[in-house]
């Protein structure tokens, strides 16, 4: 009989030629357990997905309640479903007044695709401007927003009329004109290594977009849902987007995304043509139930308010001669090391010693820290101790 590993290798379509290949059988809180009953402290959280940890009782309760009623009924936007309306109302109450209409989808890439279509339809323009070193997903439209040719060249031709500006470079904003439908930006660039937008840059970006009638789209697929110490990262900048894209932690562990805008803007997709954007499973009843449970848990357990203290603890503890710096915001942190070889050794060492971390798509000489927001100070200290022990081993080898 074939093992699960053999079945994985035989039948699961690959994303790389070197997957991690951990066989996980259970997850709880901030921990993962493999087939050998070994536990790993999860510093990745499914890449910023499991914000309230694995198997939270509120999520399990929401799944039980909804699954006893119904799952899928009809394509999105036709039937009134309580979980959808409650979640949309909750978001509208938490967001600026102008962000009052929610379009539910299944993933982050799909949220980006919907936002791009919305911008083109609403403005009747075609140009979309993205940031260099951005990552917005891997569907054809989202991939077109990536300037890194290594990842995009093999899938050409991509969407036309896409241009790029330097992240945090105010002078580059002159590329935004009356022909621009939208500018899309991550307030904190994910795969570039959790690089924060400069407040001056974001404010100027908003000003230039408004002057030219272009929509400003914020991709908060990673940075939203409390990860930065604010419910949404843009709240820390006092800059409101015209369109907000959410996913990852948004679903509480189930597939869910959304793009959110003003009702007048969003109505652009409802006519000429009808069904300008459509999805079968978007706003799935089960995913909306877990999303609302996730948001309520963030509030009840005051997890967002604890993020800044946990950020500082990581930054205070992670000091070593091989660490160049620790940057990022909240529990989106990058541990910058001297080179890729050290990073890979450290990732392997941590995994061997029960701590799971990973690297960034555009920065292979850095480790990612994006654990569940429920991570305790004891767990942070344990994780940092393991990281420092690994770096000590490297230092001794060099000597």
Properties at a glance:
399 residues, alpha/beta, Aspartate Aminotransferase, domain 1, Aspartate Aminotransferase, domain 2, 2 domains, 7-stranded mixed β-sheet, 4-stranded mixed β-sheet, 13 helices, 16 strands, 18% strand, globular
Describe what is shown at a glance.
Helices cover 36% and strands 18% of the residues. It is of the alpha/beta class and 399 residues long. The strands form four sheets. Strands 4-12-11-10-7-5-6 form a seven-stranded mixed sheet, with helices on both faces. A four-stranded mixed sheet has the order 1-2-3-15. A three-stranded antiparallel sheet has the order 13-14-16.
3D structure, described in words:
- The protein starts with a helix and ends with a helix.
- The chain contains 13 helices and 16 strands.
- Helix 3 (57-67) packs antiparallel against helix 10 (285-300), helix 11 packs parallel to helix 13 and helix 12 (340-352) packs across helix 13.
- It has helices spanning 4-11, 45-48, 57-67, 82-94, 108-123, 140-144, 149-152, 199-212, 263-266, 285-300, 303-317, 340-352, 377-398, and strands at residues 24-28, 31-34, 39-42, 101-105, 127-131, 162-165, 180-185, 188-189, 195-196, 215-219, 243-246, 257-261, 323-329, 332-337, 355-356, 366-369.
- A hairpin with a 4-residue loop joins strand 2 and strand 3.
- With 399 residues, it is an alpha/beta fold.
- It has 2 domains: 17-52 and 301-398, Alpha-Beta Complex (Aspartate Aminotransferase, domain 1); 58-300, 3-Layer(aba) Sandwich (Aspartate Aminotransferase, domain 2), CATH 3.40.640.10.
- The strands form 4 sheets. Strands 4-12-11-10-7-5-6 form a 7-stranded mixed sheet, sandwiched between helices. Strands 1-2-3-15 form a 4-stranded mixed sheet.
